[in-house]
């Protein structure tokens, strides 16, 4: 696994890294030095999310110790916003003449996948899903099918960026809180909207566990625009009594009722929300899964990231229920178990 | 043994027809859909040919089967029109009658409409109903609007791998059926012409000012097109129990990556070769059994060399009949794979080989030429349909005649 | 001519974001593509855009472009040939 996020997740020990917070309603990634990962000649044209995505993918491959490249499957809700914005503007500024092709090429949603394949000389299966809160999750489903079909491993991930301009655009349709909100106090500020975020997260998935495995995915369900009852039934059918719940709760009063359904279905089970760490974005679920994987393997919770959590957290946990939704439309539940 | 996957319904809209019958009619008449844009706001309106669907967006609403409303992009409307036909053709009046998934493909979402509003959207002083288009920019918007209108509530997804997007959507749907996740899937893609994409391909200097000439020595690039197409896929056991009318079988598919260059294929067509070879192997059919290849054939300098070389490498002296139908429809990007899959079915059903229009001179790099006249009464049993995209994403499908 | 070549080198470095390259590192006659500076086909499109934006010269044919963009020398000669005497 590997993650570039607004927290110190790329290098070092996450169990001691201090929590990064903001009151700007926008959590931006901590960017690493890309040079050890990407040759200078390739780096010069790449925009931010391409660098973030490619570097996370490469670090994930390093982390897995796997040297033969396999299928690459990713999800992204928005792709490279910087390049899309730039190309739209250059079309206007230069009146459709003398346009550099680079922003157009890089605005293509599968450009990060192409770069990973190119750098890894990987000619296997390659696919990119672009469906809001189901982008990463469809990549995950695709990868699990590939493993079923006989692939020994997959590189599966997600990447997303938020630009100032896109933050403003989404503020016009109520995506973000109107008042500046301290990210540490996200869950006590109930009002419409949440805080924005971004990040890249990659996983190596295999069909057979090893001593290096972080976690096993033992349950997975996606639900599109379910009613409250349908969600409740699905959650209850999905699992009984996990040791811990990781939830996508984000302080948005408009869609809080789905998380209340979760509370009702699993009363008394400790919950850790993660959006104060990474912000809300289409593929934030991948960050939540990464966090769960870290915790299951280390059998430890990065306490410094959850100062508000007064609940009694278990010392050992073997199973985690992950539940997240994106603006009430795409709902995802995953069951993770210790290997 | 995994389920076989059958095609039981098709629907489409392109520059040469508002439905499958319209498309077949103009394919037979060899009428190209290429011309000059009525609807894109661009300085290249009269310079760069495109294959545009012959309706203003307002008049697409009746075809989409919904009242005129803000927030519905041309991408969504084209998608809905094709979706309505595909479902009707498969005899599905209610998609909830059986668990049915929807895998859509799109390259730029609702850019066709948002690019006209973008500067208002980012201007705090502008306000108005255009704000309803804000969320239409991403690729999921068209998928969800189509899904919500026709009632898909099971699995939905949107794929974006440039020009191979809807071939990958078909593949993904077929795999979900084979894994037993869902018995029925509707897969395809939708694409509306945009100033964004036209300028994008033009900045790569691969748009032809003339009508595109695939596999011709004098070709200089592609022409863009728009349209949408969906195919209803059903697993064998479901199709039999449901007594579905089976049009053809999706017998093989393969996706490979070339890892050669961000936008160009390799000169020897490694990715295309591998994709066709593996897809055919999966179908269980031999090289000799392939009756026709609907090539990607964009008419860019690089694609046609690469794809042609791959054909020669795979088939040696006996390259099957092949043609690019892009001179009919333009290159419809995310919709191309699904449109050409339907053309492959039409070839099988009606014993037709479609001509590669605008061809006159064989490429110096190749020893093969495409079919240039309509062939009728030709037995077509197995067709390979190719879709190759940016980022080295190559997908080949094998579509076979249904023989029980 | 020398002035033009110096300016051209600076413009190339800026347009292609060649961060670790200085104008004096680029030899007038060194190949820009392949071995030399290691540029690729996308760079060649960007250099044609540079010619269009900075010098108002439009190169239509990619094959012609390849000849013009061989080196800084060939680019400078081409620019000079297109400018009114």
TrEMBL record, chain B:
Pfam families: ketoacyl-synt, Ketoacyl-synt_C
Ketosynthase family 3 (KS3) domain boundaries: 1-401
GO molecular function, one term: 3-oxoacyl-[acyl-carrier-protein] synthase activity
Gene Ontology biological process terms in this record: fatty acid biosynthetic process
Keywords: Transferase
Transmembrane intervals: none
CDD domains per the UniProt record, alphabetical: KAS_I_II
GO CC field: cytosol
PROSITE patterns: KS3_2
Family designation: Belongs to the thiolase-like superfamily. Beta-ketoacyl-ACP synthases family.
Protein name from the UniProt record: 3-oxoacyl-[acyl-carrier-protein] synthase-1
Organism expressing this protein natively: Chitinophaga arvensicola
Highest classification ranks of the organism: Bacteria, Pseudomonadati, Bacteroidota, Chitinophagia, Chitinophagales
From TrEMBL, chain C:
InterPro entries: ACP-like_sf, PP-bd_ACP
Pfam families with a match to the protein in the record: PP-binding
Domain of life: Bacteria
Start and end residues of each Carrier domain: 1-83
Transmembrane segments: none
Name recorded for this polypeptide: Acyl carrier protein
Organism of derivation: Chitinophaga arvensicola
């Amino acid at each position: 696994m590997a993650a570039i996020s607004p927290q110190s997740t790329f290098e070092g020990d996450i169990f001691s890294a201090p929590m990064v917070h903001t009151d700007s309603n926008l959590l931006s990634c901590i960017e690493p030095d890309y040079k050890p990962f990407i040759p200078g000649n390739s780096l010069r044209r790449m925009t931010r999310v391409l660098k973030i995505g490619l570097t996370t993918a490469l670090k994930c491959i390093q982390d897995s110790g796997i040297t033969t490249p396999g299928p690459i499957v990713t999800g992204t809700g928005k792709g490279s916003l910087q390049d899309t914005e730039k190309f739209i503007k250059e079309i206007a500024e230069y009146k459709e003449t003398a346009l550099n092709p680079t922003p157009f090429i890089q605005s293509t949603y599968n450009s990060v996948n192409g770069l990973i394949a190119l750098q890894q000389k990987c000619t296997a299966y390659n696919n990119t899903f672009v469906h809001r809160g189901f982008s990463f999750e469809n990549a995950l489903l695709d990868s699990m099918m590939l493993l079923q079909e006989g692939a020994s491993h997959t590189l599966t991930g997600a990447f997303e960026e938020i630009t100032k301009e896109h933050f403003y655009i989404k503020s016009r349709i109520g995506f973000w809180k109107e008042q500046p909100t301290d990210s540490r106090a996200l869950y006590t500020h109930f009002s419409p909207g949440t805080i924005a975020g971004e990040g890249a997260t990659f996983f190596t998935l295999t069909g057979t566990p090893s001593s290096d495995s972080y976690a096993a995915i033992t349950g997975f369900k996606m639900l599109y625009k379910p009613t409250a009852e349908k969600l409740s039934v699905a959650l209850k059918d999905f699992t009984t009594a996990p040791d811990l719940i990781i939830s996508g709760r984000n302080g948005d009063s408009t869609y809080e009722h789905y998380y209340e359904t979760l509370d009702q279905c699993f009363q008394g089970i400790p919950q850790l929300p993660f959006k104060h760490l990474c912000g809300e974005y289409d593929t934030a679920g991948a960050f939540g899964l990464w966090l769960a994987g870290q915790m299951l393997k280390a059998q430890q919770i990065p306490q410094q990231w959850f100062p508000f959590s007064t609940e009694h957290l278990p010392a050992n946990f073997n199973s985690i229920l992950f539940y997240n939704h994106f603006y009430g439309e795409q709902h995802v539940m995953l069951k993770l178990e210790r290997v | 043994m995994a389920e076989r996957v059958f095609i039981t319904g098709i629907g489409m809209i392109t520059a040469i027809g508002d439905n499958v019958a319209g498309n077949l009619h103009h394919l037979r008449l060899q009428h190209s859909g290429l011309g000059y844009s009525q609807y894109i706001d661009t300085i290249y309106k009269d310079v760069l040919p495109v294959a545009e669907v012959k309706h203003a967006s307002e008049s697409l609403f009746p075809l989409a089967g919904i009242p005129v409303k803000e927030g519905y992009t041309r991408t969504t409307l084209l998608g809905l029109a094709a979706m309505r036909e595909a479902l009707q053709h498969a005899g599905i009046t209610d998609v909830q009658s059986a668990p049915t998934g929807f895998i859509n493909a799109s390259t730029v979402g609702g850019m066709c409409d948002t690019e006209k509003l973008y500067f208002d959207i980012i201007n705090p002083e502008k306000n108005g109903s255009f704000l309803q288009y804000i969320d239409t920019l991403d690729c999921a918007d068209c998928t969800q609007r189509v899904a919500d209108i026709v009632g898909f509530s099971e699995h939905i997804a949107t794929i974006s791998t440039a020009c191979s997007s809807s071939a990958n959507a078909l593949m993904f749907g077929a795999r979900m059926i084979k894994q037993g996740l869902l018995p029925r899937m509707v897969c395809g893609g939708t694409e509306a012409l945009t100033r964004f994409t036209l300028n994008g391909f033009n900045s790569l200097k691969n748009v032809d000012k003339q009508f595109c000439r695939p596999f011709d020595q004098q070709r200089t690039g592609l022409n863009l097109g728009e349209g949408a197409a969906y195919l209803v896929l059903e697993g064998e056991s479901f199709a039999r129990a449901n007594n579905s009318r089976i049009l053809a079988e999706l017998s093989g598919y393969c996706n490979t990556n070339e890892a050669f260059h961000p936008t160009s294929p390799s000169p020897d067509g490694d990715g295309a070769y591998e994709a066709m070879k593996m897809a055919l192997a999966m179908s269980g059919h031999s090289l000799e059994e392939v009756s026709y290849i609907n090539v990607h054939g964009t008419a860019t300098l690089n694609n046609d060399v690469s794809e042609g070389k791959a054909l020669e490498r795979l088939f040696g002296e006996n390259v099957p009949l092949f043609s690019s139908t892009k001179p009919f429809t333009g290159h419809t990007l995310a919709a191309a794979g699904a449109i050409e899959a339907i053309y492959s079915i039409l070839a099988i059903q009606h014993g037709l080989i479609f001509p590669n229009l605008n061809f006159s001179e064989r490429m110096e790099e190749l020893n093969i030429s495409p079919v240039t006249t309509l062939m009728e009464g030709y037995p077509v049993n197995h067709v390979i349909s190719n879709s190759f995209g940016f980022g080295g994403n190559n997908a080949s499908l094998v579509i076979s005649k249904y023989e029980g | 001519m020398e002035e033009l070549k110096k300016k051209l080198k600076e413009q190339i470095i800026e347009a292609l974001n060649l961060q670790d390259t200085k104008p004096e590192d680029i030899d007038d006659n060194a190949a820009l593509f392949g071995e030399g500076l290691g540029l690729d086909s996308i760079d060649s499109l960007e250099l044609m855009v540079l010619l269009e934006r900075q010098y108002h010269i439009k190169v239509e044919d990619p094959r012609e472009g390849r000849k013009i963009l061989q080196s800084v020398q060939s680019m400078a000669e081409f620019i000079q040939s297109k400018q009114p005497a």
